Amino acid sequence: xxIFRRLAKLIRTQxxxxxxxxxxxxxxxFGEYELDDGxxxxxxxxxxxxxxxxxxxxxxxxxxxxHLVD
Length: 70
Prior knowledge:
This protein is mostly helical. Helix content is 83%, strand content 0%. Helix 1 (3-29) packs antiparallel against helix 2.
């Protein structure tokens, strides 16, 4: 998979995770969840993984293309 396709997929995944987390937090705030099922932690953990992968892709891209910027 090319770097741009991977980047687009990661950004879509990050957006979906953020939306799920917002919905989860809103439901939690309004008392829809009696018990914490760990879903919020799971979503935050996955978001952290996606951010790290995006960061790695950015560093990889900078290293590959640094000669073009000079």
